[in-house]
Design the sequence.
């Protein structure tokens, strides 16, 4: 049996994305813990932070609540993983996974209480760090950490997919669905628990040896780790690099994140060098490329853009760099150059590894896996500044030096190799401003659809429609989709026209780089998948010419966002005069009053229409545009909507073509447009549906 490489990649990417669901909780709770520790540190706040004061008591209570996700990390993964892994009834899959994981731990606890010495486990000792034991939901059991939780959750999801929909006889109806899944899980956990009792103590010993080896790898180990974490971002497999280190036992029990926070007070009070206190922290320096590298990249992209495009490029890259520096989310910036200049991403990964290794060489260590807000400021710099300010001064100096290195290296390569980064080719920068414009239209003109609804529908259409979708999940910034036929997937321009930052097309495993709104986009995407397709019917309505001139297909419009049908199907008219009329009766839903270049209608039939006058005429700021309607007006076929001074449009150097698209055309499968011909506004039929 041949196993397809595409299938393996799809499964791995889906698993990596699912793991990020619980990981999203660690950033905010890490800040809560760090701030509460900071507020109970007398070295920083003085006597008010002494134990016994009301101030101390308040922050102690806050701190205990903030430890929730770190003290219950295995439970969080056992419950959270099915959200991304299960293909149906995710909420029930989470409940099933929780129960099966608890059963697994109860089985292990019972076996070890009876036969602990036979497995080489002293089960009489306390479940403390270093004992190999832990408490999971108050169950004393083997400390399998997130590895055990991930494995059991994965098995639970497999059982869910296999047994949830089994149709038992009516007499056994009480055992259908989740009950059958948990019954199967109950009996499967017995041999699994026995297997863990046999092999896990040996695995713990191997992990201890691995921790020593990696810690002893020094500068070279830090470089390799950081390089791999960055270079694998386009594939989405970078989660498999950092999660075992930051949240797993690769270099320290319970992961760097938990260990660092648990010892933060101790490190803050010590005057010993951080490199001696916590050498394992070198494997959490990968965030330094986000804080110091991304500003250099943004500046290089800005200064290598054509002068006339720098304003557009700056509006694109500087906010993206700010997100990377403050929050540690780099995809919006990295994907602006990844697809047009992959060599730059390789250089970026090399520089990221070199920066982390250089800082580690000079004694910098800590928990720096994210940005300034979620890691550096509250978890490192502020609480430890009193005794370790020289280390952090060294870190900032090295970081700023590397910011300059990033800038000059990227600038040299872009100019030397003539790389078509944003603002240097034809139309790259415009793709992003088109997304901003589209978001503005939706925000003001479509009260029943917010921007995320429009994005979800556009991404679904660009992925080949619902019949082409196998499954969908997401990580922090990416919509991860498996498709049946990847030849039906449109190019990245169609996705970027609706606000995506890029597209990873790896066979049938597709990743749409969306940004931080991806959970909401995925929810709407799945809602669209569950909707039944409207049946095609004989055309019962028509659209009339909305201008006088030559009718042309939408695919011939000289604008990629429209021509790709990313905004919807439609047509266009090259006008002979400036009159723009209503193609059918309906209500005005949106008018771009400041510029006059776009009008939205909802027709009596429910079809939603966008009429866009000219290409890039938004830059004329309304000069030459006269609008005769306002939001809420009722219009009939042929009513005058706008009048445009075509001479002014042409003198300003813009194309005056008038474009009409149906933004909800997927609801009208019978929609057909007439062939190229000369039409008169309000007279000829141009489409039926």
Sequence:
């Amino acid at each position: 049996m041949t196993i397809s490489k595409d299938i393996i990649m799809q499964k791995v990417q889906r698993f990596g994305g699912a793991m990020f669901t619980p990981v999203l909780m660690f950033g905010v709770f890490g800040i809560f813990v760090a701030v509460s520790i900071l507020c109970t540190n007398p070295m920083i706040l003085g006597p008010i932070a002494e134990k016994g004061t009301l101030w101390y008591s308040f922050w102690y209570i806050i701190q205990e609540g903030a430890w929730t996700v770190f003290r219950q990390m295995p439970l969080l993964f056992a419950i959270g993983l099915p959200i991304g892994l299960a293909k149906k009834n995710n909420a029930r899959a989470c409940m099933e996974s929780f129960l099966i994981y608890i059963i697994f731990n109860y089985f292990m606890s019972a076996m070890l209480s009876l036969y602990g010495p036979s497995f080489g486990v002293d089960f009489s000792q306390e479940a403390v760090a270093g004992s190999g034991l832990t408490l999971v939901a108050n169950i004393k059991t083997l400390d399998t950490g997130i590895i055990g939780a991930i494995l059991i959750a994965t098995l639970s999801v497999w059982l869910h997919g296999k047994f949830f929909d089994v149709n038992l006889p009516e007499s056994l109806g009480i055992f259908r669905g989740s009950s059958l899944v948990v019954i199967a899980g109950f009996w499967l956990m017995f041999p699994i628990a026995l297997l863990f009792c046999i092999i896990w103590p040996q695995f713990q010993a191997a992990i201890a040896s691995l921790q020593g080896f990696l810690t002893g790898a020094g500068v070279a180990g830090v470089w390799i780790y950081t390089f791999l974490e960055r270079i694998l971002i386009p594939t989405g497999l970078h989660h498999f690099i950092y999660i075992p280190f930051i949240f797993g036992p690769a270099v320290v029990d319970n992961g760097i994140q938990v260990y660092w926070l648990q010892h933060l007070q101790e490190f803050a009070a010590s005057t010993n060098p951080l490199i001696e206190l916590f050498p394992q922290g070198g494997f959490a320096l990968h965030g330094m490329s986000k804080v110091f590298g991304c500003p250099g990249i943004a500046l290089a992209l800005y200064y290598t853009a054509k002068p006339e495009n720098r304003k557009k490029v700056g509006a694109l890259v500087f906010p993206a760099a700010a997100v990377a520096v403050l929050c540690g989310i780099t995809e919006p910036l990295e994907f602006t150059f990844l697809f047009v200049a992959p060599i730059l991403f390789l250089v970026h990964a090399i520089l990221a590894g070199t920066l982390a290794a250089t800082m580690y060489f000079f004694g910098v260590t800590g928990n720096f896996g994210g940005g300034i807000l979620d890691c550096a400021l509250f978890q490192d710099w502020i609480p430890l500044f009193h005794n370790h300010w020289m280390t952090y001064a060294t870190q900032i100096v090295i970081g700023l030096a590397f910011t300059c290195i990033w800038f000059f290296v990227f600038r040299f390569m872009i100019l030397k190799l003539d790389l078509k980064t944003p603002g240097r080719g034809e139309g790259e920068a415009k793709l992003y401003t088109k997304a901003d414009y589209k978001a503005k239209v939706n925000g003001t003109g479509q009260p029943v659809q917010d921007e995320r609804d429009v994005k979800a529908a556009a991404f679904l259409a660009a992925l080949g429609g619902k019949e082409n979708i196998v499954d969908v999940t997401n990580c922090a910034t990416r919509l991860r989709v498996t498709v049946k036929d990847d030849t039906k997937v449109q190019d990245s321009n169609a996705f970027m026209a609706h606000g995506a930052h890029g597209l990873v097309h790896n066979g049938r495993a597709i990743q749409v780089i969306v940004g931080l709104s991806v959970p909401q986009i995925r929810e709407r995407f799945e809602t669209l998948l569950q909707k039944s397709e409207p049946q095609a019917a004989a055309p019962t309505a028509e659209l009339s010419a909305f201008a006088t001139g030559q009718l042309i297909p939408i695919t011939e419009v000289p604008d990629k966002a429209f021509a790709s049908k990313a905004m919807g199907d439609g047509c266009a008219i090259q006008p002979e005069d400036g009159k723009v009329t209503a193609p059918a009766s309906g209500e005005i839903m949106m008018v771009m009053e400041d510029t006059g270049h776009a009008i939205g209608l909802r027709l009596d039939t429910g079809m939603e229409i966008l009429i866009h006058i000219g290409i890039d005429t938004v830059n004329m700021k309304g000069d030459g545009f006269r609008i005769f309607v306002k939001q809420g007006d009722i219009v009939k076929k042929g009513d005058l909507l706008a009048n445009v001074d075509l001479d002014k449009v042409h003198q300003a150097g813009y194309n005056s073509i008038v474009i009409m698209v149906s933004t909800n055309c997927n609801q009208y499968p019978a929609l057909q447009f007439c062939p190229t011909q000369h039409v008169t506004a309000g007279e000829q039929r141009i489409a039926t549906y």
About this structure: The longest strand covers residues 569-575. Confidence is low (pLDDT under 50) at residues 427-449.
